[in-house]
Amino acid sequence: MATLPSGLPDVIADDEDIARFLTQSNQFNKTMAKPAAFLPNPKDRETSVSRHGREPSERLWQLGLAAARGRTLYGAAIFKASDVREVGLDLTADEPPLFHAVLTRWPWFDHDPDEQKAKQKERANHLASAAGAPVLK
Amino acid sequence: MRTGSAVSTEAQTIRSSAFAVVESAELSMALFGDKAVAISGLRMLANECAEENWDGNGAYPLHPIAVLLAEEFLRALPDDFPLPEFAPEPDGSISLDWIQSRTRLFSLSIGPSQRLAYAWLDGSDKGHAVSRFDRQQIPARILQGIREIVNHGHASLRAA
After folding, report:
1. In a domain, B160, yes or no
2. How far is CA B20 from CA B12, B30, B45, in A?
3. How many distinct structural domains can be found in chain B?
4. If contacts are CB pairs under 8 Å, which of residues 28-57 in chain A contact chain B?
5. What is the pLDDT of residues B40-83, one digit of tens each?
6. Domain range for residue B124?
7. B-chain residues within 8 Å CB-CB of A29?
8. Is the pTM of this model over 0.90?
9. How far lies B84's CA from each of A20, A133, B35, in Å?
10. Cβ pair A129:B97 closer than 8 A
């Protein structure tokens, strides 16, 4: 197993914490980060995340601010790598930037984008439920 | 001394009309107030996500037709129905969410197409489906799905 510049192994373990940064105020409420916050970018078909938990919080927000690229950073939804794999998605380390990873293998059907979206939403519901209340900055 | 009865009648008519307008406005607010507030929130979101890359990660701007369809969907919701929360989706669609708890939610996506994708989570029960919205009446299947989440009924709605 190789080691990445962050010092993390290149293979993501099931028990690793994963952070999805929230850069829009409608992406969450008091109860949870909403499912839409986890949906993939249609251009690369991936969801950008960081391999990081709640602590150390200074580094979490440092990574978040870099990910927000000048936009407001509201918080982060934290879940486990195993939550991703439970719904048939996968996680791949993607450095640089340090600690960066992507959620891959989202359902994609070019012939039926609505069915594609419905299946993606079911998986996003699972991730949102697993993450629960966001960590607010 | 002039009694001015003609003026008085006119004034009374104007006063009655003014009362009618106020009553009508109050009735409209009572009937449509919450929906009007929701539509206003939706438009605010559309405005905030009107440019590409609103998430810092290359998201598409919210599609104007999606915003229009979402407004029509809100107007078509039965008056006694709980209103959803909104969230932007990276492909330019709008998510309408009924969130009761982290394990009980119904999430509907409105994009530029009249086929609406949705998925629900109700404890260990989960599923997804697609239904067509004719821009006037919300498909019974969607209403039933939302009702079951909101009322915590037992699902008769199951995955397509």
Report:
1. no
2. 12, 15, 35
3. 1
4. 29, 31-32, 34-37, 39-44, 48
5. 999 999 999 999 999 888 899 999 999 999 999 999 999 889 99
6. 5-150
7. 85, 99
8. no
9. 23, 18, 10
10. no
